[in-house]
Write a structure and sequence with these properties.
This protein has 3 domains: about 1-30; about 30-200, no CATH class; about 215-445, no CATH class. The N and C termini lie far apart (about 80 Å). The chain has 16 helices and 10 strands. The protein is an alpha+beta fold and about 450 residues long. Mean pLDDT is about 85; it is low at about 15-40. It comes from Sporomusa silvacetica DSM 10669. This is SLH domain-containing protein.
């Protein structure tokens, strides 16, 4: 009995062990089937901006279509320059556009064949505009570069060897992706995404995140304060003339004038943009979030703001960075040196928790209210460009002039009137519209309330 009992225990232990091991591998196997195991910033960027999402196996046609898309190439001729690609092929335009642009160098293409990692790198080198650099490479320089991959160049065409070498030396192929380069092996979704964003970087369309540091950094307070201290009121006469007239006519409640060079370039799904005018408030807000266990990348973006000032807020204190002007129609407009402080939180849960903290410690509900951080507003303004529970949707109208841009919010039902009114003021002006999610107190401000 004892021996049989022990054998049964061992058998059941083995069965349970196998089942647990199998269940653990389910996420990996499922991810492999969808081709989305890698979820780095490059993948997210391509999905969000270009709707490009690779499966686990990438063929030649899929990759060249993605290249043509990010390069914004088109082909308007009726005949094909490439053997194997007919006008009724789904790759007709993209393949011919890349051939015409010099990215595809052979007049024959098997679009449905699996793309190798080395060929993907070669295509990316050409798409990045590095052809002339490739022509400067000799055999010794090429051998030194590709030796970093542990490959033998003897099995590659000389042109491919040179292109691979240029990708290594220029860091179009980053060191972190060396492991993905093997002779005759398929390109991975990870490598494909990295190569596409590197191509975009060479065309000035993909930039790394722009930020001062993290909430938990010891020196973050000094970096934020220095940025504020060195900031000046932003002015753009062309833009200001239009929106000031819009305020006078009652089309808009106010606006923010930003410098696009300061934009954060964060993952928007985890990002909140918070606006205010007091640097002391910003420093206390960072300390508050840190004390509540939140961590995020921090970017501080000075801006110039104008908004309708409500008499219910009390008599304003005029300073060099803040003034209030009365318009002929009886409204008061405040002009202020302000800032947006953007936070890319580590998780979606932390992004959601941000509002709870603001409502409790940074939202003024009554006069002389205690327990709030310095200069808490009746109607704080913070936004998300992706959906978030507990927020309201409004329309952001974006007017651009060079590297400056104006943002002005309106209720969605008023958006058409705002757009039409702004275009009437300046018919040649281009206005983009975007749905954003704002906190409810600011939404009430747009409705005419002050709390």
């Amino acid at each position: 009995m004892t021996s049989k009992f022990k054998n049964k225990k061992i058998t059941w232990f083995l069965i349970v062990t196998v089942l647990v091991a199998w269940m653990i591998t389910i996420p990996d196997r499922a991810a492999g089937e969808t081709g989305n195991r890698y979820r780095g910033p490059e993948v997210q960027f391509l999905e969000e901006k270009y709707s490009i999402c690779f499966g686990s196996v990438i063929n030649n046609g899929e990759f060249i279509s993605a290249l043509a898309k990010v390069l914004n190439l088109d082909y308007t001729e009726q005949s094909s320059r490439i053997e194997g690609i007919t006008p009724n092929s789904k790759y007709f335009k993209t393949a011919n556009a890349l051939y015409k642009d010099g990215v595809l160098t052979e007049s024959k293409l098997d679009a449905d064949s699996r793309l190798t990692s080395i060929n993907a790198v070669a295509l990316a080198v050409r798409a990045a505009g590095l052809k002339e650099v490739v022509d400067t490479y000799n055999r010794h320089k090429t051998d030194v570069a590709i030796s970093k991959l542990g490959l033998s160049g003897s099995k590659l065409q000389p042109s491919l060897m040179n292109e691979l070498a240029v990708a290594i030396d220029s860091e179009l192929l980053p060191q972190s992706c060396y492991k993905n380069i093997h002779l005759n092996e398929a390109v991975t979704p990870e490598l494909a995404a990295v190569l596409l964003t590197k191509v975009l970087a060479f065309h000035g369309e993909y930039l790394p995140a722009n930020y001062l540091g993290y909430i938990t950094d010891e020196d973050i307070y000094g970096k934020v304060y220095t940025t504020w201290k060195n900031a000046k009121l932003i002015k753009d006469r062309k833009l200001l003339e239009v929106v000031n007239e819009g305020v006078t006519q009652g089309l808009i409640n106010g606006y923010n004038l930003r410098d696009k060079d300061n934009v954060h370039r964060f993952d928007e799904r985890r990002t909140i943009r918070y606006g205010h005018s007091s640097i002391k408030h910003a420093l206390q807000l960072i300390a508050l979030l840190k004390s509540e266990g939140l961590n995020a990348k921090v970017q501080f973006e000075p801006k110039t703001s104008a908004y309708i000032y409500l008499k219910e807020w009390g008599k304003p204190s005029i300073t060099p960075d803040f003034t209030v002007a009365e318009f002929a129609n009886g409204i008061y407009v405040a002009y202020a040196k302000e800032y947006d402080i953007s936070f890319e939180f580590q998780t979606l849960e932390q992004k959601q928790a941000f509002q709870t903290i603001i409502f409790k410690y940074a939202k003024k509900d009554r006069e002389n209210q205690q327990g709030l951080i310095y200069d808490a507003w009746w109607q704080p303004l913070y936004t998300s460009v992706t959906p978030i529970s507990g927020y309201q949707t409004v329309t952001d109208h974006v007017i651009t002039d060079g590297h400056y841009e104006i943002h002005t919010f309106s209720l969605e039902e008023n958006s058409f009137a705002v757009l039409s009114g702004l275009m009437a003021i300046s018919p040649d002006m281009q206005v983009a519209q975007q749905t954003v999610w704002v906190d409810n107190p600011f939404y009430q401000y747009l409705l005419g309330g002050y709390r």
